[in-house]
Here is the input.
Amino acid sequence: MNNIDLSVQVGSLKFRNPILLASGTVGYGNEMSEFLDLNKIGGIVTKSLSLKPRKGNPPQRIVETPSGMLNAIGLANVGVEVFLKEKIPFLKKYDVPLICNIAASSVEEYVECTRILTEEETIKAFEINVSCPNVKEGGLQFGNDINAVGKITEKVKAVTNKPVIIKLSPNVSYISDFAKVVKEEGGDAVSAINTLVGTAFDIYTRKPKIKNVTGGLSGPAIKPVALAKVLEIRQKVKIPIIGIGGIMNWKDIIEFMIAGSSAIQIGTLNFINPAAAIEMLKSLEQYCVANKIENISQLTGSYRI
Ligand SMILES: Cc1cc2nc3c(=O)[nH]c(=O)nc-3n(C[C@H](O)[C@H](O)[C@H](O)COP(=O)(O)O)c2cc1C
Here is the structure.
């Protein structure tokens, strides 16, 4: 086989290939290491971390839906302190870029988490999950409030010199307006998309299938939406994009790159086949050979409209 370069760059971040593991679907990487060689994947994004540990929502927290799933985990996590003490030592053994995803209920908490974690050299970048309720401002999600997204970007950037990726919510009218404010406030990249709000009912009990009533829809059902959001950002704002949403095979990765993604993340697929990230690499290489592409990054934004 020809020498195909699968490496990609997202701003100043370099990955050996475009496949990253999405937040919330691989914990802190330890369980995944039984199924795949973490040294071969592009990068790992941790479960959302908050300042203090969180138990999350009561069950039922997950339900399968046609071509996807709904989840309302409620950001259950060990908190930054336990993460640094108990999870980082394991991750240090691997040569794989680690991106810490952060969740918070106030701007100050985002800043404090980032400030604490930035000291840890194993962490190469931050991904800020803005799909969290803003407790101080009545519980509306930060991700739906353009001023809040701008403020979080600005304040988080002020306490770290590591790249800051803002993970955008698709539950807005124009996602590119949010990407624009991220760029204006100094954000290094955006990842798109987080889950779409959805629900499902049991027709016999007439109760929601998820205790929280609504949950986040993920999986192949959301892929066309995610692709449209990536394309919208690509066409309106000059900022690196990490594409996420319903990626189930190598062809989906190519599609996301054509639409404008520099790298991608796989989420729901990890539950179906935890070795998928590695298994898809060969096919990406073969596609590049067949299409005379030397460096896979040439695909980014290469759509013909
Ligand atoms: C069970 C589950 C838990 C998730 N937890 C988080 C989380 O903690 N933080 C976050 O930013 N995104 C979280 N996500 C969203 C994923 O990272 C991803 O954006 C979304 O699932 C869409 O990608 P997919 O269709 O490939 O799964 C979670 C998704 C699932 C399915």
Notes: The chain has one domain: 8-58+73-196+219-299. Residues 276-290 form the longest helix (15 residues). The chain has eight helices and 14 strands.
